[in-house]
Design goal:
heterodimer; A: alpha/beta; Heat Shock Protein 90; Rossmann fold; 5-stranded mixed sheet; 5-stranded parallel sheet; B: alpha+beta; Sulfite Oxidase, Chain A, domain 2; 4-stranded antiparallel sheet; 5 helices; 11 strands; 28% strand
Chain lengths: 708, 169
Amino acid sequence: MLFSRLLDTEREMDSIVREDAMWAVFQSDRHLRTLESLAFVIVETGEAKYHDRFVQNYDILYSRVSLLDGGTFFLDLSGDGALSRRVVEFNRTIRGLAPRIDALVPASQDYLPEISLLAAELRDLAQLSNDLVLGANAAINVMRVGDRALRREIQDQLAMLALVLIVAFLGIFALLMTQLRRIGKSNRHMALLQERSRRQAQRAQAASRAKSAFLATMSHEIRTPLNGIIGSADLLSLASMPPQHMRRLDTIRASAALLRDLIDGILDFSKLESGASDGRLAEIDLDDLGDIMIRAFADQAHEAGLTLSVDMPSGRIVTNDSRLRQVMINLIGNAIKFTPQGRVQVRGVIQGDTVLRIEVEDDGIGIAEEDMPRLFREFSQLDGSFSRKYGGSGLGLAICKRIVDGMNGRIGVQSKLGKGSLFWFEIPVQENTALEDEKTELRDVVGRSIPEKVLHVLVVEDNEVNLDVMKGILAHLGHDCSEARNGHDAVAFLQNIVPDIVLMDMQMPVMDGVDATRRIRAMGLTLPIIGVTANAFSEDRDACIAAGMDAFVPKPVTSAVLDKVLAQFSPAGHNDAAPPASLTISHDARPSVELDDMEEDNPQLNDLVAALGAELVASLVDRFESDIAVLEGDLGAAITAGDATAQDNVLHTFKGAALTLGMMASGEYAQEMRARLPLATTELDVLSSLAYEDVARTRHVLIRPEVA
Amino acid sequence: MTGFARFFIPVLMAFSASVATAQQIEQPQDTVLLTISGEVSVTNADDTALFDLAMLEALDQHVTDVETPWHDGPQQFTGPRIIDLLNAVGAAGSELRFVAINDYAANMPWGDIEAFDVILATRQNGETMSVRDKGPLFVIYPFNQNPELRNEVYYGRSVWQVKEIQVLP
């Protein structure tokens, strides 16, 4: 509305026209009066010399009046048109004079009367013109007032509008300021939150690192007292006690062993987590790898009634072979563990020359889909009842995932509950043989990259007394110790955990030391294996070395010898590629001991007391005493039966225990007896009386204050 | 010295004579329509230059089709451009004053005639203009080519019934 008024150009034009029209009317009036005056002068003077000026003035008047009703100055000042009609009449009258003016001839005698007539008419016209001027002026005044009122109205409206605009602007400004302040505040808040979350992330990372370090430390620290528990319980089990106490002690030992396995798993895992993975690469033959897996798991699968097949492509690849084996052993072990019946199939395939994919498929219990996501997470054995039924820490798959991730590979599973599982992993490999020269050198570093003073030692020993003594000495030397009762158990143990060193007894039931060593080497493990034997003959020694042992020590084992051997083969202290055969301590070199001297100087017994304490040694002696009765029974039966092999076995076991406890007389005698099999009953009596004498002498030594 | 004077005096006289010839324009043969006075160097009567219709039409003619507030419908005006006219009389000023027969007068800045093709029309639609037709001379701005000129200032400078142009310093 306002704008339409502001933009009313027609009205603006009107005002221009009005002013011009006023000017035109006034000019016409002025020329009309001049014309009238000239006519009056001519009439009064009677002279024609003013004629030209008279005519020119008329011409000018004529040109003026034409504007009053023509061009854009057409005047229409009043609403009723009365003024316009008078203008038109005035205009017509003026123009109407033109023929008469043109007809004037100054010389004519009609000239003066005609001028006189014109003068009278012009006087009347002047009156009309005056009325026109006044009327136009009045009309213009009215319109001016109207205009002014309109202008004021428009001005008021404009002022109002301006006020509204200013208020609106102020409002917008205020809103903008509020908005800005709010944005600023939220920005500050965001920055604060970001800083806070950054700090929280830092704290979380620190906590995670602390957790890992804590786990590693605690696992390690827990092992020491745990070994104390296990060792003490083992030793305690040597003492005679009521059967219900014995059962409880068995429970303690079993629980402690389970706990130690669990902690071993955690240790292994936290080592991986703390990034202590070796970047060692080696070239391996995939066929060999398949053979290793078959040999390692054949017995286990057979016992479980499963068919195990391993199908690997032929060829050689370069990869981190020990890690690869660890993952495969874990997956295959799992497959066998969780498959009640059916088959376990292992397949390997090289994809695109650079990726090795291994699949382990079983007919086992399978995995429900909802359980898959947490399958590879730490401590996530699917069902609590599983660990009760199958044992294990639940870390196996998590460790596998860590290893595979560390090798820039992928690991996954396809499974259906009750329909078996297919575990697979893919790792990048190099398929070349360029590393041939470095091969030997690389192989020497296997498993020895983590320098650690405290060693983890696997003791493989069937005789309980010997086992207890070994464990006692190892604990005394500050090392950690795991045990296996025969070669088969040792091989099974090494499938999951690889200790720093193995102390392997030679003669054991089920699987002897030489056999076990061959199998361990066949699995591709290169950790040091030290033979522990009373058979110090050179052919035995050769058999040990041929089977893949690094060295051997004779029985009885003393803490000094053991310490030396462990130092020699400690991964941290070990630098030489080939363990020196000279380490082997010759049976012949052992100082021969006279019966009389023994009472005064029995280094083996002193060593034992120093390592285990007099009380424990005393309990071992008690245990040995009860073993004498067993010896009498077993050996007597064997002599009666005339079974030379059985006699030899009994004597061997007895000799080992006797020498370990420093009972040299009976021990040496037993060894001598083994050279003249079959035996007579009388010889048994000699041996048993020697044994009892030894027991008595040992007890006597033990109660001496300087020894205790 | 006398040789010098003898050589130079005729030369100087010849030179001044040629200048005097250049500053002269012909005398009007018919009724004088226009007088240009003031800062003009080329004259034909005392300090002024007088023009009759033939002299005006002897200059370059310019045709302007235009609508004016004083006529009904478009009109065609013909006449010399004022800048040409003033150059012909050697005018050198900053402002012009146009005087009409009825003693109406209006001033025009020199810039107008340089910026626009302002003409001094002698003919309307091919015919000469009588005083009754607002003739004989009419200052015409090119309103159609330059619509921004359509306002009271330029209407006021569009003097009709022109009889004299005063060139003001």
